[in-house]
Write a structure and sequence with these properties.
The protein is an alpha/beta fold and 290 residues long. It is built from nine helices and ten strands. α6 links the parallel β7 and β8.
């Protein structure tokens, strides 16, 4: 008996396209972290997971970039966490618990933000699993290396510094960075491996990190706002769209990725829907490549 229209609509809205495996069968688990309580400029990234799911149905599951299909993978869309907007530590702990449960079940957690601070919760879970061997690849417009923002240690502007402090020196590899305070760039010289403006050197980093467990965090504002205006802190001078799928595919297909995320889509700043479409397409490539 054919499905009713209501059943089809519900299915389309609640799951990202091609991600309909059961949690038990899946190798990869997608979940949303709709949290943007520390956003210092334009909030709204909490709405990204809700926007991406229905818009993903404008895509095909087949990737001409990889000549592979998402339906050949076992991916479960686990839906969104219910995160308390006024309690940052409680939200991070909930994210950590979700990511840890997935890791301990032998699955790769793929998180949809939300602001960039949500990365810290997932990295904490991966660090518990893999300890000092864990490495991070961070693609972003911003350093996110402040020690504090307006006296607050846990912020989207401090997230990578908190991660780097956890892992230890020179275990975070940053690309595309074109914005930050002088002190952040000076701190990076000693504590991270930072590449300004571009993805140059990514291939060499991938070779260097073979055999390590790697967490990959992608802030979509690395893209130039002319092609990706739907973000909370647009930063002119970014990379073009065509560079990003190639980088994502290389990272996810060639390294031992133990967790990853896509953050900082704020869909209502781009009413054309192009930014959400770009985020969906990048997620499709990420899931197929893992």
């Amino acid at each position: 008996m054919p499905e009713t229209n209501e059943q089809i609509i519900n299915q389309n809205v609640t799951k990202f396209i091609g991600c309909d495996a059961s949690a038990e069968d899946a190798n990869i688990c997608v979940f949303g972290a709709p949290f943007d309580s520390t956003s210092s400029f334009r909030p709204g990234s909490r709405f990204a997971p809700q926007a991406m799911r229905p818009d993903s149905w404008a895509l095909e599951t087949y990737s001409p970039y990889q000549d592979k299909d998402l339906t050949d993978k076992k991916v479960c869309d686990c839906g969104d966490l219910e995160l308390p907007p006024g309690d940052t530590e409680a939200a991070l702990e909930q994210i950590r618990g979700q990511a840890e449960a997935m890791c301990r079940s032998g699955k790769i957690p793929v998180m949809l933000g939300g602001e960039h601070l949500v990365t810290l919760g997932a990295v904490r879970a991966c660090y518990e699993m893999y300890g000092v061997n864990l490495r991070i690849i961070h693609i972003d417009a911003h350093t996110d290396l402040r020690d504090e923002l307006l006296g607050v240690k846990l912020s989207h502007a401090t997230v990578i510094r908190r991660c780097a402090e956890m892992l230890g020196n020179k275990k975070v590899y940053q690309f595309g960075i074109r914005s930050g305070e002088r002190e952040e760039f000076e701190w990076a010289e000693e504590h991270t491996a930072l590449t300004k403006f571009s993805l140059e050197g990514l291939s060499a980093t991938v070779e260097k990190l073979r055999g390590y467990p790697v967490y990959f965090t992608l802030d979509l504002d690395v893209l130039d706002p002319s092609v990706f205006p739907g973000t909370g802190t647009p930063e002119p001078g970014g990379i073009g769209y065509s560079e990003l799928p190639e980088a994502v595919i290389k990272i996810c297909s060639e390294l031992n990725i133990v967790g990853c995320d896509i953050v900082e889509l704020s869909p209502h700043y781009d009413l054309s829907g192009c930014s959400t479409a770009a985020a969906c397409k990048i997620l499709r490539e990420m899931l197929i490549a893992l």
